[in-house]
């Protein structure tokens, strides 16, 4: 389906945007303390249920009027039509003339979606079934390495979307994984990465998954060649295989995940051992495709499918819930409110689960590669700031590091608190339930950020007058609290889909293409151009004086 996409408009030049500007003039001076005093029901009413996620957005610097005005942006931007266009396979990634169909990766097998003449659901489930068969063979020990040993380590070699999603989900769902199989992730072309991830492994029990949508990415292809040399070298020296047998062993120790079968076979991986996906899956939206093969091997096909069902539940919420109770819509609009009206350039993501350690890093690519854009769909400059710097660390570690700035710094940084009612591990310290101790921090932090502590309250505690200003907690710092029963594969899928759709909503409001990433290309091309200068093959003549001098220092240090 290549029908023209809905009119390329953005909400940033609409009357609704202007009305929000006027409204901001009033709201910027209003404190959350007043908002809660005036509207005591907001704590239970400015909340919603999105699949299994309970979302509380009451601690935001908004009134019901603000929310109404923000909602008007959705009509100005044509959000409903754009959602329908995305889900139905219209080529909304206009600069690459591609459909954007990560939502199809999690459609149930009895769903129907034909795009560009192709039965997308059948294609997705054919690959899922092959992945499941493969994962089962690895997990059961039926698939062995060349010397007959069971595979105990899976090394995923990929970068960007071919790394961040799998490593995040592997860490997040470790509690559901087969502990007899460990996954490692090599991404950086810094040789220390592959060295550290392989030096203590036995090649006989190691499987490499080379994950690259394009199969042309310099980092991944370089690491894949290093991995192949490590494998063949190790099988020869440690296990006594002949050079020919070691080369043949690559078939038992390497599989590929890609959209590019030609490049996979050119590399030397049999396409029978390749798991495909499609150009309508963006790299940063791909870990629920075959790119998640390492995750499926770790947690098993059933858990992986449960994760997909979680994604789908959030997709359905986004597609069908009225915008007034639609989590991605409301949270996307709130991000626009802070970024464009309060001037917040950043957004903290604070998971209260150590298993979600890599979630903020994953979100960095999802949100910043998607929405770090300066022109609208028609090529005209954007009329408002786009994107935010996403960052964060799990609580409570972050509390002892950067929360000071959140609480008392001069900047307003909206924060997302993500917590779980039930622990994955129910441990007690004497009589104390440690998860309760942990979660008391989750509840305390958003409360302290919102309401703070006044000078009067602090003085009343007998604090010396000269110290009072230092102890004042201004409050009025906005946050969303997302609470789920337990971190399960389904809940992880729901969380990821939630942020995918928040990102989309923001992009639609700004009128940008959230699905291309031309900004990463120039640096890649320049690195290729500079590489021969570092080996001394070509001179730095013609480079700017800073770069030429820096390379001169490097060459001197390397004795070239
Ligand atoms: O750095 C840009 C990028 O294209 C990302 O969008 C992508 O996730 C990553 O490189 C890896 O690409 P590939 O999967 O094709 O190796």
From TrEMBL:
InterPro entries: G6P_Isomerase (IPR001672), G6P_Isomerase_C (IPR023096), Phosphoglucose_isomerase_CS (IPR018189), SIS_dom_sf (IPR046348), SIS_PGI_1 (IPR035476), SIS_PGI_2 (IPR035482). The keyword Cytoplasm applies. Its EC number is 5.3.1.9. This is Glucose-6-phosphate isomerase. It catalyses: alpha-D-glucose 6-phosphate = beta-D-fructose 6-phosphate. GO terms for cellular component: cytosol. It comes from Nakamurella alba. Keywords: Cytoplasm, Gluconeogenesis, Glycolysis, Isomerase. One of its GO terms (biological process) is glycolytic process. It is found in: Cytoplasm. GO terms for molecular function: carbohydrate derivative binding; glucose-6-phosphate isomerase activity; monosaccharide binding. Belongs to the GPI family. The active site is at 369 (proton donor), 400, 524. Catalyzes the reversible isomerization of glucose-6-phosphate to fructose-6-phosphate. Pathway: Carbohydrate degradation; glycolysis; D-glyceraldehyde 3-phosphate and glycerone phosphate from D-glucose: step 2/4; Carbohydrate biosynthesis; gluconeogenesis.
């Amino acid at each position: 389906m290549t029908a023209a996409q809905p009119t390329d408009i953005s909400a940033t030049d609409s009357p609704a945007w202007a009305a929000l500007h006027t409204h901001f003039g009033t709201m910027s001076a209003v404190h959350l303390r007043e908002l809660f005093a005036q509207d005591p029901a907001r704590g239970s009413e400015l909340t919603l249920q999105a699949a299994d996620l309970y979302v509380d957005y009451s601690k935001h610097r908004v009134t019901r009027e603000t929310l109404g005005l923000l909602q008007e942006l959705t009509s100005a931007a044509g959000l409903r039509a754009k959602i329908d266009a995305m889900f139905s396979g219209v080529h909304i990634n206009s600069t690459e003339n591609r459909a954007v169909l990560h939502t199809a990766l999690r459609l149930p097998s009895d769903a129907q979606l034909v795009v560009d003449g192709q039965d997308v659901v059948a294609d997705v489930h054919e690959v899922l079934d092959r992945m499941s068969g493969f994962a089962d063979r690895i997990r059961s020990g039926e698939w062995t390495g060349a010397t007959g040993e069971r595979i105990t380590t899976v090394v995923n070699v990929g970068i960007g979307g071919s790394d961040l999603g799998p490593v995040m989900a592997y860490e997040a769902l470790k509690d559901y994984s087969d502990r007899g199989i460990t996954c490692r992730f090599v991404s950086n072309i810094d040789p220390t990465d592959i060295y550290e991830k392989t030096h203590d492994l036995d090649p006989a029990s190691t499987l490499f998954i080379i994950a690259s949508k394009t199969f042309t990415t310099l980092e991944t292809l370089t690491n894949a060649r290093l991995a192949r040399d490590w494998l063949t070298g190790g099988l020869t020296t440690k296990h006594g295989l002949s050079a020919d047998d070691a080369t043949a062993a690559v078939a038992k120790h390497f599989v590929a995940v890609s959209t590019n079968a030609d490049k996979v076979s050119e590399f030397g991986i049999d396409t029978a051992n390749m798991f495909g996906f499609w150009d309508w899956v963006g790299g940063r939206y791909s870990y629920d495709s075959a790119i998640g093969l390492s995750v499926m091997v770790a947690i098993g096909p059933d858990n992986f499918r449960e994760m997909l069902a979680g994604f789908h539940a959030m997709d359905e919420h986004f597609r069908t819930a009225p915008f007034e109770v639609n989590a991605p819509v409301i949270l996307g609009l709130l991000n626009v409110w802070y970024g464009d009206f309060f001037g917040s350039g950043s957004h903290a993501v604070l998971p209260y689960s150590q298993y979600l350690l890599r979630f903020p890093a994953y979100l960095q690519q999802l949100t910043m590669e998607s929405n770090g854009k300066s022109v609208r769909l028609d090529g005209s400059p954007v009329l408002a700031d786009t994107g935010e710097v996403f960052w964060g660390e799990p609580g409570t570690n972050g509390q002892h590091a950067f929360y000071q700035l959140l609480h008392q710094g001069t900047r307003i940084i909206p924060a997302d608190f993500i917590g779980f009612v039930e622990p994955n591990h129910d441990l007690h310290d004497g009589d104390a339930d440690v998860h309760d101790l942990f979660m008391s921090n989750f509840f305390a932090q958003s409360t302290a950020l919102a309401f703070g502590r006044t000078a009067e309250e602090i003085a009343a505690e007998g604090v010396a007058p000269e110290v009072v200003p230092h102890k004042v907690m201004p409050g009025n710092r906005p946050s969303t609290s997302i609470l789920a029963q337990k971190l399960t594969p389904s809940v992880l899928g729901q969380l990821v889909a939630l942020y995918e759709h928040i990102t989309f909503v923001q992009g639609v409001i700004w009128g940008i293409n959230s699905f291309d990433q031309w900004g990463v290309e120039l640096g890649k091309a320049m690195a290729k151009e500079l590489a021969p200068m570092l080996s001394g093959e070509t001179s730095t003549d013609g480079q700017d004086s800073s770069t030429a001098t820096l390379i001169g220092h490097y060459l001197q240090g390397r004795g070239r």
